[in-house]
Design goal:
alpha+beta; elongated; Pnp Oxidase, Chain A
Length: 164
């Protein structure tokens, strides 16, 4: 597999988060568990947005902003990432309108003006990505080959991404 180009890797990261849409979000400090969240990408602003209720543990904990991580895995299992950055509440009305859809509205019965609705904005600082090829079948083949040849499997690469 050729070396991963920094800009291509960052573009792929945005694309994969946008496609996968679901991942696990949590704070890196304390004893909170990561929780499943739906991500809304805003590549132009360099942010990932999450709808939540103001009374959730996560929303209460990030009132002043905290370092958080969002993990995502592509459905084909050929791309995984852990994205770290500052997570803050940001009740951006334009983003609420832009990302509003029937799935989101199900959680907020009073609509876009639901007083419990808030957005969390993750501004990525860095990420670690894992890019593999061939999916599960390739993984099995490489594992068998490694066992027979006493080498390690060649299933892909890992690389850091730094956002500027």
């Amino acid at each position: 597999m050729p070396a991963l180009d920094d800009k291509d890797l960052e573009n792929r990261l945005w694309s994969e988060v946008d496609k996968a849409r679901f991942g696990m979000l949590g704070l890196t400090e304390g004893r909170s568990h990561f929780q499943p969240m739906t991500a809304f990408c805003d590549k132009e602003r360099g942010a990932i947005w999450f709808f939540t209720r103001k009374d959730t543990d996560l929303a209460r904990q990030v009132a002043d902003g905290h370092y958080a991580m969002f993990t995502v895995m592509a459905k084909d299992q050929e791309f995984q990432a852990c994205i770290g950055g500052e997570l803050v509440p940001d009740h951006d009305r334009a983003k609420i309108s832009a990302f509003w859809n029937p799935m989101v509205s199900a959680w907020f019965p009073k609509g876009k003006d639901d007083p419990e609705l808030t957005l969390l904005r993750l501004t990525p600082a860095d990420a670690q990505v894992w890019v593999s090829r061939g999916g599960p079948l390739r993984y099995v083949f490489e594992t068998m080959k490694a066992n027979l040849t006493h080498t390690t499997p060649d299933v892909g690469e890992s690389a850091p991404v730094t956002f500027i």
